[in-house]
C-alpha cells in the first residue's frame, strides 16, 4: 500500500517545483494551448514562505503541486464570497491518471469547511474544452470567460487570452 500525503511545499522542493512547471509548460505547448511562462523564483519562494504552495507526496516522491490564495482580486474582482483559489496545478507524469486533481478538490473542500469558506475557485487562460469538461466532472460550474483589464501583477500568460472561470460551492 502506498503512502499519500498533502502538505505545504518547502524551500527544498524548489528544483522539483520548477521541473514540474517546465514539464507542464512543455505539455501545454505540445497541445497548442496557452502555456505558462517561466515563473519568477521569488513568486514561488514567497508562496512557500506564506504556506500557499502545496504538494501531494506519494511514497516519498512529489506527485503534484499547486498554489492557493484566499483572495484573487485581479482575476475575480474585489468583494468576492469567502473562497479558496487554486492555481498552477502541475502533475508529475509518473503519477498521471491517478485523479490527483480530484484529491486536491477534496482537500480544498475540507479546507473550506475548516476555514468557513464558501467556494473553491479556479481559472485557466484560453478556451480549453478538454480542461473545461474535466473540471465540470469534478463538480465545478464553468462560469464563462472574462477579459482581464489589468494583468500587470499577474504572470505573463494572462495576457494571452480570456480567462475561463470555474467555481464549486462547498457543501458543509
Your description of this structure?
With 172 residues, the chain is of the alpha+beta class. The protein has a domain of 119 residues: Gcn5-related N-acetyltransferase (GNAT) (Aminopeptidase). The protein is 31% helix and 28% strand. The protein is built from 5 helices and 7 strands, in the order βααββαβαβαββ. Strands 1-2-3-4-5-7-6 form a 7-stranded mixed sheet. Strand 2 and strand 3 form a beta hairpin.
Strand composition percent: 25-35%
Shape verdict: globular
Q: What is the CATH first-level class name of the domain at 4-122?
A: Alpha Beta
Name of the CATH superfamily of the domain at 4-122: Gcn5-related N-acetyltransferase (GNAT)
Q: Main β-sheet, in a few words?
A: 7 strands, mixed
Element-level helix/strand string: EHHEEHEHEHEE
Spans of at least 5 consecutive residues whose pLDDT stays below 50 are none
Contiguous helical run count? 5
Strands side by side in the biggest sheet: 1-2-3-4-5-7-6
Give the oligomeric state. single chain
Q: Please give the share of residues in helix.
A: 25-40%
The overall average pLDDT, rounded, is: 94
Task: Please give a handful of descriptors for the protein shown.
Aminopeptidase, alpha+beta, seven-stranded mixed beta sheet, 172 residues
Secondary structure layout plus pairing:
Layout: E1 4-8, H1 14-30, H2 41-49, E2 53-58, E3 61-69, H3 73-76, E4 83-91, H4 100-114, E5 119-125, H5 129-137, E6 141-146, E7 163-169
Parallel strand pairs: 4-5
Antiparallel strand pairs: 1-2, 2-3, 3-4, 5-7, 6-7
Amino acid at each position: 500500500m502506498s503512502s499519500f500525503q498533502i502538505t505545504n511545499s518547502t524551500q527544498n522542493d524548489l528544483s522539483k517545483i520548477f521541473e514540474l512547471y517546465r514539464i507542464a509548460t512543455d505539455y501545454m505547448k505540445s497541445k497548442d494551448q496557452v502555456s505558462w511562462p517561466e515563473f519568477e523564483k521569488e513568486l514561488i519562494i514567497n508562496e512557500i514562505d506564506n504556506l500557499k504552495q502545496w504538494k501531494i507526496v506519494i511514497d516519498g516522491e512529489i506527485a503534484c503541486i499547486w498554489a492557493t490564495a484566499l483572495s484573487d482580486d485581479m482575476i475575480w474582482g474585489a468583494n468576492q464570497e469567502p473562497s479558496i483559489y487554486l492555481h498552477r496545478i502541475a502533475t508529475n507524469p509518473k503519477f498521471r491518471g491517478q485523479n490527483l486533481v480530484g484529491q486536491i478538490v477534496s482537500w480544498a473542500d475540507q479546507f473550506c469547511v475548516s476555514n468557513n469558506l464558501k467556494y473553491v475557485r479556479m481559472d485557466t487562460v484560453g478556451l480549453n474544452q478538454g480542461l473545461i469538461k474535466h473540471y465540470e466532472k469534478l463538480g465545478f460550474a464553468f462560469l464563462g470567460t472574462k477579459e482581464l483589464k489589468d494583468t500587470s501583477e499577474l504572470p505573463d500568460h494572462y495576457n494571452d487570452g480570456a480567462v475561463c472561470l470555474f467555481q464549486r460551492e462547498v457543501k458543509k
